[in-house]
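Entry for the shared binder. Reason: the reviewer on the internal report wants the predicted structure included alongside the sequence.
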Amino acid sequence: MPGSLSYVAKHDIAKLGLPYCRAKPIFRTSESGLRNVLEGATVGTSVGRPVAAVDRDGDPLTYSLGGTDAGNFQIDASSGQLRVNATLDRESQETHSLTVSVHDGTDRDGEPDTSTDTTIDVTVTILDVDEEPTVTGPATATTTENVDTVLGYYSAVDPEGDEITWSVAGTDRQAFEIHSHGALRFAVPPDYESPTDQGRDNSYDLLVQASDGSNTVSLAIAVSVTGIDEAPVLLGPRAFSLSENISGELGRYRAIDPEDATVTLTLGGGDSGSLSLGDDGVLSLDSAPDFEQPGDVDRDGVYEVSIEASDGALTTSRAVRIGVRDVNEAPTVSGDTSIERDELYTDDTSIIGRYSVDDPESGDVEWSVAGSDGADFVIDAFGQLKFAKTPDFESAADANRDNVFGITVEAFDGDHTGSLAVTVKVSNIDESPELRPFGLYPQVGNSVHLSFGDPDGSVTGTQRSWQRSSNRVSWSTISDATSSSYYPTSGDQGRYLRVNVSYNDGEGDNKTERFTWNSAVRAEPSSNTAPNFDSTAAVQRSVPETDPAGYAVGPPVSADDDGDDPLVYSLSGVGNGSFRIDATTGQIGTHAPLEGYPGQAF
């Protein structure tokens, strides 16, 4: 015990016969007590180096933690290492005040004593991290067709107060737009009968995205479009002019109901007793009119009737005027009678012909287009002829399906009609093939693939060769690499890849195209397993031969990946030219109408 001869002999280092006093642990003068840690660090993350004391006697030290913010941290009792004990947010509190205490377990006489020997104040500064914004707003929306309305207002809060930029992404993003204040709406009011969503089921899926310039956050949105009962669309002339003493057929009317309901045509109006409307929609004058003795109700030489189309619930009416004229000169229409336009350089806004009229009795005319292919064109009040729908040589829309349209340009002067027969020919253009790469960032051991299709028809004689280059200037051919896919090897690492394709199509032979990857081949990942198709992939699918291009064929062909890597789907096989697959979802769709292939298996 202290003071005894044995204690003095053991601790009297100077051999002066004096008792030895044990020293307390101390913190070095170089210990500033300042530490830093990133905000959001996980619990257990070390905060700088240990807050360590020294003890002259070499006794084991025990550390403890106190201070205002001690609850947010923990300390290793034996080493003095501070660690995170709670979620730390710089925007809420920038610094935290702590007190680290230490004792060596004994008093100055060597007796057990766990009271604090020394303390040091510690300040922990929370370092800022650019945190992603938080997006709020409705996850679902429903709207009726033909309505231009805001589907939802979205807001975002960025912890750092950065400016937010809005955008849309996802499967059906092309149908939407979002404004700078977060208002989401359809880019064009939706049409229930002609949905533009990928599934063609009026259920649109998209992502509303908010970016602070560094981080982007997405909110999945589902938008449903509901149909309304729309009135039938009535097609046919609004006015006729005929010379006196002529009776019989005036024109033909037809109606289309957006909901495919049965439509009934009826004739009404003050002069309906002088005309007939057949079941085939043909409007006829029952007896030959006499210009000098008008037979219409108000005796002005103009028969006025209405054509009505009803689907049982809604009715569309069209006023029709039939003018009877004294025999005089008909308007003379002049302009292009033979028009030829290239498919790629003509759309429904292009003026393909200009027409003028010479009428001795009148200067004002009403223009229209008739003939077997008249419904495929429109003409404005200035005599400018346009396609009603952009032509496509590969999907001919004329009556004979030969891309030669026969029409009649008509000018009505209020009494009679002048006409001009016009032939419009759509010429084929050698369109560039569609090259669709899969695997934009080549990596050793992972397949890169190039899908190839040609709008000009079936492709034959396709040959591929793969090449590599270290500088994208000098290229060397890769031996035996001739398929649509290629697996980069370790020898390709750091090099660039390209594939050359030679082929024949409906427009010519020995054509060539190439695609070069912009990213050099990356190193092989540590491990990766191939994805597996699920049980629905092998299910037989069918599609009506009348379905248009872009129509979904059965459910998506889906696969699973153990590593949750993003999957890229592609098509191959004898019939792949007739179909397309969505690279992200695995949804197969038609690429071209399949008429003429009943019962064909692909």
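Summary line for the report: Helices lie at 5-11.
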